[in-house]
Amino acid sequence: MKMYPEFQDITRKTEIGGLTKLELIRKLRQQSISLNEYAEILLSNDKFTTSKTKYNLKTVELTIRNLGFPGGATMPQIIKRAEELGLDLCPLEVGPHIRLNYLDQPEGSTRNLSRGQAPSGSITIATEKISEDDDFPRGFYLRKISGVLWLRGYIADDLHVWKTEDRFIFCQRKDC
């Protein structure tokens, strides 16, 4: 049974933790996962930490439209609505772990690619930002282009309007 029956959601159970930062990066390389410069900045930042103990986390993937925004929404609006639905922001380390576990992501498109917009077929991991600097990467997104799996970092301020078809992953609140 779907938790959000009015939405087309995708739920995943992912094992998080149990790896050091270096081990996690090594696993990404072993799987031939490409990183952009922003992802490397996030992974090398002291605020990017990993859990020493393994735990299972259930995530929910929804579009902005599924969250109730037919005209798009800003990050503060998206977060507020997700919280109302019993969803939480993910720890930053969730991005690399989901990338390692989601190796069969469908191919994205390079058509109609606009600077400042989420690429077609990408999935953004909803996380707390680790810096108030709008020029510092906010978080990760997953993408597959020309057969290559990517873990990419992105920059977006709180005024950026996400499109209705943009996809986000949130953590399901444990008490739901």
TrEMBL record:
A molecular function (GO) term: helicase activity
Keywords: ATP-binding, Helicase, Hydrolase, Nucleotide-binding
Lineage of producing organism: Bacteria, Bacillati, Bacillota, Bacilli, Bacillales
The protein's name: Helicase
Species this chain originates from: Sporosarcina quadrami
